[in-house]
């Protein structure tokens, strides 16, 4: 008897697809998985491509050889994708705290080994990590943004919450660098150790995520209970900032969706220490629309900036100089 079970979510991770069905070739829904009649192949179909996994590699080698010699008498055997083992995904909220601590150091070591091979991953994040058999080694997946150091490969794709301020604000995409990986490494370490990021309102979180990255807002290290890991996270975020493109203008006015920003600027020609200062506020789009003075997500930049836009002269120092 033939049993049927269609894929409930075509874009779900491969390991979550049902694999207990045999579907006739003329089925209306082509999104199916099926075992071969001889028990050593496993096939699936998506859109115009059909995949076939051979557990008997000798049989695969023989068939490829026949197809090569058959030429235009056989179907096109060009590579259209990759078949990978189904491994264990990394989900920080479901991992015990002591294991999350070990995972942070494993990710650090994995990234170092990756860089030693002359590679930039370009999209380091918990979702791109797998615990692989048979030795449960941590490994990267998803190399769509990866490149060799200095090869000039450019892609406009990035994940906002793990990206540098420079990356999300650049007008034309540029090649990934070690600065991108170091920043993403620090952000991933933080997320892993605190057990993930939870938000009840996805739309609000998405806007805050965009604003925070645009402002160069760092994660809250006070939530990291281990001081050594907190310093390690800060170390990689600092390394990323040190390597970032110097053309990024930190004083440029930034328009944000939900976060108002207060910045303190030293007055021009001020000789005092600490300098006399003035505070400016950039109002977010939501507060402008609501005509409100109080922003629930107000960010006060802790640094004192110099030579800000239209910063006035320090009249206090000028008057003191005149009276002395």
TrEMBL record:
InterPro entries: Kinase-like_dom_sf, Prot_kinase_dom. PROSITE patterns: PROTEIN_KINASE_DOM. Residues 1-304 form the Protein kinase domain. GO terms for molecular function: ATP binding; protein kinase activity. This is Protein kinase domain-containing protein. It comes from Gymnopus androsaceus JB14.
